[in-house]
Amino acid sequence: MERLELLSGAELARTLDRLATQVLEEVGDSRSLVLLGIPTRGVALAEVLGARLAQRCGHTVAKGSLDPTFHRDDLERIGTRLVQATDLPSDLDGRHVVLVDDVIFTGRTVRAALDALQGWGRPRRVSLLVMVDRGHRELPIQPDFCGRIVPTRRQESIQLCLMGVDGEEGVYLLRP
């Protein structure tokens, strides 16, 4: 499989800084902010983003994870993976929730996450942050915050590497 670098480690760091700044500008009250990572890579991305947000706003930002597996409508097509526990840091009522994922593709994962979120409270607002938008949407779902737009072929994929998980940082296009 061919692996092409889309963002170097330094470019990824700058992109994360930009996304953190955009989130803070949008939210207003950073104490109402809750980052919810969508497994698997969105959870790690939410951790990294949370650290950058804390540096900017001077306090810890609430973080957690939301696994939408049981709310998917395409399990027969994509298969299943080991379900991760949903871990919410606090009550979501009245909070600004930012769903965090590494890549948006068809939009079905985000739709499932929105369905899963309904069982946990009523946030004041829900936003979507992704590192890469690769196109091919099947549902009318768009990110509010996006690191990069990278048009891909359906058979290609995007790989986000983070130091804490992979021992390297960057964003890569994988071609068969």
Structure description:
The protein is of the alpha/beta class. The protein has one domain (10-152): Rossmann fold, CATH 3.40.50. Helix content is 31%, strand content 28%. It is built from five helices and eight strands. It has a five-stranded parallel β-sheet, with helices on both faces. The chain is globular. The termini are close together. The model has no long low-confidence stretch (mean pLDDT 93).
What is the CATH class name?
Alpha Beta
Helix content: 25-40%
Total domains: 1
Elements, N to C (H/E): EHEHEHEHEEEHE
User: Which of globular, elongated, flat, extended, rod-shaped describes the shape?
Assistant: globular
User: How are the strands of the biggest sheet laid out side by side?
Assistant: 3-2-4-5-6
Main beta-sheet strand count, sense and barrel state = 5 strands, parallel
CATH topology tier name: Rossmann fold
Counting DSSP E segments of at least 2 residues, the number of strands comes to 8
List the quaternary state of the chains.
single chain
Please state the second-level CATH architecture.
3-Layer(aba) Sandwich
The helix tally amounts to 5
- Give the end-to-end Cα distance, rounded to a whole number of Å: 5 Å
Q: Radius of gyration from the CA trace?
A: 16 Å
Low-confidence stretches: none
What is the structural class? alpha/beta
Beta-strand residue percentage: 25-35%
What is the residue-averaged pLDDT? Answer: 93
